[in-house]
Amino acid sequence: MPLLPTRPAPRRLLLAALGASLLAAPSLVDQAADAATTTTGLDDPEKKDIAMRLVSSAENSSLSWEEQYAYIEDIADGRGYTGGIIGFCSGTSDMLALVELYTERVPDNPLAPYLTALSAVDGSDSHEGLDPGLPTAWKKAAATAAFRKAQRDERDRVYFDPAVESGREDGLGTLGQFVYYDALVMHGPGTDTLSFGGIRTRALKEAATPAQGGDETAYLHAFLDARVWAMRQEPAHTDTSRVDTAQRVFLNAGNLDLDLPLKWAVYGDSYEIT
Fold it and tell me: What is the spatial distance between Cα 198 and Cα 196, in angstroms, rounded to a whole number?
């Protein structure tokens, strides 16, 4: 079995640990539900959409992140089923946490019957108790606004909001916050060497954050170096183009605000946002 990356603990555990800290594009109702006050940094609505597109290019080989709610398959990376807008995985706790949240909000839903099986396979790539019905149930759920919103909410709670908060605490701008976000998506929160916290610790041995008086570009290069190291420890992530020909390109161009236009490549495919 391939080495399983560290990803989030179940939602109930994350809430205690963190404390305070489809089938189609979302409808106007969906979007209105997520509306927020004007902010700066990656959580500016336009920058956030750019971030979603960048991650989708790596996770789904598409810039259309809004079309990925119903996506689900086993991509043979040791994480079991991967599904939805951020790649929730049956083997790494975040799919379980998502279905728990969805079931809290909508008890009678197509995925509720799989909660026991999702809990049992957590930490493995097993499909026991999930086949053959999980993919069909997932796609059925993705046709509902409630499940689409649950996906967005879990994405924000586990990955996006912590990345923006941590980035700001370290004195990073929009690009730096995105670098943190993408690392959290792939490696998950945690303190071991292959998790986000471990990658940050490794980077800090080479450079100080801007909040510590360091140079932002130098620190981000150190963080990306540390992330490449972590990726290469996992057989499924030996292709580091997600960093080398995407984030590093923006950094080398001095685009710390992640301004358009953006051109990058991931896994051999080229993308552009103008």
Answer: 5
Structural domain contains residue 4: no
List of the chain residues with pLDDT < 70: 1-40
Residue 131's SS3 state is coil
- The string of pLDDT tens digits covering residues 59-108 is 899 999 999 999 999 998 899 999 999 999 999 999 999 999 999 999 99
Instruction: Establish if 211 belongs to a structural domain.
Output: yes
The domain total for the chain is: 1
Residue 227, domain CATH: 1.20.141.10
Chain centroid, CA 153 distance in Å: 12
Pick from 127, 107, 105, 110: nearest CA to 118: 127
Cα 274 to chain centroid, rounded: 23
pLDDT value for 30: 53
Identify whether 130 is part of a domain.
yes
- Write down the pLDDT at residue 87: 93
Domain region containing 176: 11-273
The pLDDT, as a whole number, for residue 7 is 53
User: Do the domain assignments include residue 125?
Assistant: yes
DSSP assignment of 141-182 equals HHTSHHHHHHHHHHHIIIIIHHHHHHHHHTT--HHHHHHHHH
Catalytic residues: 59, 77
Q: Are 90 and 118 in contact (CB under 8 A)?
A: yes
240: buried, middle or exposed (CB in 10 Å: 19+, 13-18, 0-12)? middle
Pairwise CA distance, residues 64 & 97, whole Å: 24
User: What's the pTM?
Assistant: 0.85
